[in-house]
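Collaborator request, handled under Task 6.
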Amino acid sequence: MMVKNAEAFSLREGSHKNVTRVVIESDGGGSLISKRPLDERKIELILTGGLCRDIKNHPKIRSKIIRLWSLDDLPKSQCRVTFSLYQKALLKRVFLLKKTSQYPARLVIDIGQGALPPAPPKKKPVSTVVSAFKPILETTGAVAFEDWQREPPPKPAFMAGVPLGGGVFFHPQISLKPFRPTIVIDPGHGGHDPGSVSCRGYFEKHVTLEAAKNISAELKKTGRYHVILTRKKDKFVAKRERFAKARESQADFLISLHADSHPLKNLRGITIYTLSAKASDAEAERLAKQENKSEFLEELQFTESATRDVSNVLIDIAQRGSKNTALQLAEKIHSCLRKNKVGKLMTLRSADLAVLKAPDTPSILIELGYLSNEKDEKLLRSVAYQKKIAQSLVEALGQYFDKD
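Structure tokens returned to the collaborator:
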């Protein structure tokens, strides 16, 4: 990265989130020889190639960290840049950007707030009593680092010491629990509401319950999720109770499972739905009317009068964010089902489905297939097929929560 006869001609500086970035621009560039702290309030860089040799009237840097800086020529075409700081700080990183057709060569220096790690303290045992346990060593809690630029990691949390005898105490480290997303699986229909019925008398309510149990089992195997079923047996649950359970548990997702039926017996495949005020197509509109029809049979209070005291504007804002999140998961599920070759897949659809209307819970509805189609009905009764669907959903959820 060496460039001869380089001359510095400008300097820029800016601060963001407790880090000050200094950029020295040169018409030719140069290279970094060394970097080191002179003390806790001074940082020194040695450069070569004339990066900053000819700056005489340098500007005062306005920064919460850097008080002033100076430039000195050194033998062998080297120069020294010294930063004097208002407070204890760390040199985060230094790097060079080569000259391009649009930009000059740039030396970039990031200085952050913090303090240099102290020298390691002398260790001495608290007790000389012979024990089956190794003696606990007395330290200040400081950690020594070979690389002084790195900030020390956060200190682990400790519980109160447990006496082991002879003045020795055991300090167990607290285990911080990882984030566990809550997934609510909703087996559609149940009890006196059988849902669709196949030509062989197979009820939708049984298909969805079996699928929900399989998905729950696969999710729990990962040890990563908290899983809730809206029903665990053949009983009726109103739609309002279904998404109320998701809201009460502060679920990350509600996944409602159904199995469709259609007058056209050759129609088949898995369809994934998200919420929208307007149906994406005629088939989505038909499904919404079919699924929502039982809403009035379930509970007469679920009418306009029951929601007069709720702000429609706030609901719309909350639903907008939830719908976007639900669509992201729906796309991942669709992709995983396709990759794993799980039956025939229909395009993603959207409709005004009552069960998806929890304003602050991202919700999707999956039609697992058509019970009116013989091939789909046979697949839906297959344990292997249901397990394949469950594994694809687990994969999709993993992709969603791993994306950040």
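The cover message to the collaborator said: "Residues 1-8, 126-160, 169-176, 295-319 have pLDDT under 50 and may be disordered. The first helix runs from residue 204 to 222. Please let us know whether this matches your experimental observations."
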